[in-house]
Amino acid sequence: MDEDFKVIDNYLMIRMPDEIDHHKSIYISKMADKFIINEQVGNVVFDFERTVFMDSSGIGIIVGRYKKISIFGGKVFAINADRQIKRILQLSGLHKMVEIME
Amino acid sequence: MIEIVSVKRDTQVKNEMRLEFKAISENEAFARTAVAAFVTQLNPTLEEISDIKTAVSEAVTNAIIHGYEGMENYDNRVWLSCFIKNDVLDVEVRDSGVGIENIEKAMQPLFTTKPQLDRSGMGFSFMEAFMDDLEVISEPGHGTSVHMVKKLGTASWIEEE
Ligand SMILES: Nc1ncnc2c1ncn2[C@@H]1O[C@H](COP(=O)(O)OP(=O)(O)O)[C@@H](O)[C@H]1O
Ligand SMILES: [Mg+2]
User: B108 lies in a domain?
Assistant: First the structure.
């Protein structure tokens, strides 16, 4: 699972799992924070290419990381989000915090 | 002595299923997948399946992480029942845990008692958005019951018009 976290320049790239729920979210948040602190990355990119399911735990992961990096001017991006994931991001008002890229 | 118990059937109920499982987070995926499999008989659209899975995941996660808060050393259970009446799915998720003191406040968007656990406070909002009806019954010390209703087939109906 560690290969799903990669640092490229000042970006932490996270390949999100196929299903994101509370059970899975604990590990993702913990790993992401390890990289943010140890490698001092400024921005985080969530890649939803593989993801077919996400509940509000995914929102918790994104908001939690946003809070950690935005104080230093960092940004959060979402890539490869399908219709349902975009809907969930929109419903939570997260499209203001996260740049959703096509 | 044989006792004959006759149960008056709700003739509208076409199908019904009940599950009881341990209140551990490994069962979140199991619960939503089971409900998704059960509703396939109603020919739901992919979007409807996705809506139902999200709502069930929210209610079951809440039962596991909030319902049994501080009761981790017990053999805690979650009960899930599903009914199908015509094209309507009825889901109930119940725990026998701590209950909710102020239901109205708990249901507000962004309200959470566990911000340190990265909870977003959007669970009830998602249940409301993705299902057609949501009712929460709870009493402190007596657990919580979340009742959700979704009418299926409305999307394809509109598309056909
Ligand atoms: N089954 C439950 N038992 C006890 N408290 C609950 C239950 N479900 C929800 N709650 C309370 O309602 C709050 C809001 O729930 P929700 O909208 O799902 O947000 P979150 O789970 O992110 O905290 C929870 O933080 C918790 O305090
Ligand atoms: Mg919740």
Answer: yes
